[in-house]
Amino acid sequence: MKEHIISLLRYNDTANHTLLHTILQLPHRDEALRLFSHLISAQDKWMNRITNAAPDSQYQWYGPVYDADRIGGEWERSINAWKELISDTGETDLRQYIYFHRPADGRKMMLPLADLFLQINYHSMHHRAQINKLISAQGLPLPATDFIFTVLREAPAPDSV
C-alpha cells in the first residue's frame, strides 16, 4: 500500500506542476489561482489534523489565495510535507486512525491515514478538472495531467520479449 501511495503522490505532484505551468499562462487566472490555493490550504489543514501542531480553527479550507510569484513555492512546501510523512510512515501505520473534531458540529471523527493520503490525490483531481474548464474557456490547450501519462511506457520490441 505504501508504494502505491508514494506513486500517487508523485503523480499528483507532477500533474499539479503541469497544471500550474498552464495556469500561469492564463490571461485571467484569478479563479484558477484561488482553486489551486485551495488545494494547498486543504492539504495543510489535513496535515495539521495529523500533527496537531496548531488548533484546527487556525486552518481554513479556503485559506490565502497565493499570487503567481508565490504559489509554486507554497505548493512545494505543502506537497513535500506529505511526501516526507509517507516516507516516515511504516506500512502498518497507514492503518492507524487520525482523530479530529468536525467544526460544524463538534463531533469527533476518525479516518485511516491511508485514506487521507488518497483524499489528497482525489481532491486534486476534482479541482484540476474545474481549473481545466477555466483553461479551456480561455482558449489555451489543456495540459496532459491524466494518471496514465505517468505510467504508460513503450513496450519492448516483440523479438526482445
UniProtKB/TrEMBL annotation:
DinB-like domain span: 36-131
UniProt source species: Nemorincola caseinilytica
Cited InterPro entries: DinB-like (IPR024775), DinB/YfiT-like (IPR034660)
The protein, known as: DinB-like domain-containing protein
Top-level division of the source organism's lineage: Bacteria
SUPFAM superfamilies: DinB/YfiT-like putative metalloenzymes
